[in-house]
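In this section we walk through a basic example: taking a raw amino acid sequence and producing a predicted 3D structure, encoded as discrete structure tokens. The instruction is simple. Fold the sequence below.
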Amino acid sequence: MQPHSSGDNDMRSVASKQSQLTSVSSGSDSRSGLSHEANVPAFIGKREEANVLRARSLVAIILLVAVTGVATAAYLLAKQQEQRDFENKFEKYATEIVAVSRSNVNQFLDALDSFASSIGAQAAVEHELLNTSWPFYRIREWSIQAQKVAEITSGDNPMIMTVVPIVQDDERDQWRSFAAEQNPIWYQESIEHERYTDLTVQELLDLTVPFVYFYDVENGFRPTPVSRPGEVFPYFQTYPFGPIGLPALLGNLDALLSSKQTEELYRVTNATRRPSVGFTQFPLKPKTIVPGSRIIQPIFDGASTESDDRNMVAMITVSIPWLEFFKNLLPEGEDGIVVVLESACPQRFELDGVIFRNNRTEAERNIITYQVDGPNTVLLGEADLHDPQYDALAVSEIFLDLGIDQSQIPEGSCIPELTLNVYPSENLERSSKTDNATIYTVVVVVIFVFTTLVFLLYDFLVGRRQRAALDKIARQDKIVSDVFPAAIRNRLYENQAKNMMNGDVDMLEDDGNFGLGDFGRSSSNGSAPLADLFPSVTVVFADLVGFTAWSSAREPHQVFILLETIYGAFDRIAYRHSVFKVET
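The resulting token sequence is shown next.
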């Protein structure tokens, strides 16, 4: 190979040659920074990957905090709504229980009052027609009329209703004859109406005590004639006609001597001319003792109920289980509402005229607790047995107020007033719970998980595209580094960045690559071309003598090996002497 200026143009190489002080200034930059600049894309890529990783971590933390916060908020809000629904549900049912049960009781008391007025009016009519008068008056069709009043409670277990005439001291012998004459008549009427078949009329008469009596506990529980002077209060007509009412049915048992509570209630009724109510216990069924109340309803002489000088001639005593008034109040499946019925008067347990006391306090003895389970009601006990954790939700109302003036109450007697307290229970709260809180929480978590997965998929696709673009840029940068010195390359990048910021995209080829073909031209925005002045340069042209003839007789791979060897040697020499090779 020898220098010449013409020949085959199979290979040309351009380099700077001068004392290497003028043209090599830029070349020295290329030599000193060649290795470092070649690693710039890789460094930038790693730095960007680190930034992206930090951004991803931040987004993941934000999503985790967000899903935790939103899920917790959704759960708590759902729980609060569930609690509000439970409270509203209880308030609705409690209000309904109070209203309906109080209405039923008032309806029953009104019916009882009307019944008493009706009895007084019937007695007044018979007095005009038959010259009969109290206490020698038998209520006709007693069983039929009493049943109509009892049906108002709609209970499975009937109450005990008894007429008690007030017999003066000088009327006792005449009462004894009247009772002996009238008992067979109303016995027969009741047997026929109530279809009672356990005993015949004669058997009942044989069991009936013929005089007004009380049970002498100290003398073997024997029926003993009432010897005290003054009025006596014998049981007379009784409903129902059966084992439940049998103790009162057999007649002539003194109501006041057999029951201290009845005596106290009578004192209140006689003083106020109003009905009175108190708690007691009584055998509702054979071998079944339940708590309940005793009601005293006065019967006045004549039909008038307004006059203050009315003469009280008899009374109706009613033993009633309050449980019946709390049945059929709730729909099936709504269980667990606790009803606490409290009386202002203490309770006594009486059975056949004997008062049994226990070790319970007065406060416990005037309270009965029931639980309403749908249409059914069960007795929980004779104390306040509600759950204290629901005190704040209590609904309290006056259940029965007979409108008695406190100033009219005899000294030592209590005010017959009933208070109804309604509470929820764990059963009701448990039945009100739903899975909404869990469902809402799961839905929120699923939405966030789905969003996160979409985000991760998008991030993966964008990351893959960015990596592909970064690899392409790295390859382009290597080409540029091989073609241009570092200073020229950097200036090229800077100009391109400025042009892109100014909206000039001519520096990009259609395929997105840098427009190297335009290097040296003015860009569309009028920027100056990349050109430097070197006052003193040397240009070397080299040619291979006989290359055309030689290559025409060789295989292509032999030609390629030769050219690659020569080009490599030229590149190494140029690099060693910091010569800028323009073109080969």
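Looking at the output, two observations stand out. The radius of gyration is 56 Å. The first strand starts at residue 2 and ends at 3. In the next section we compare this with other chains.
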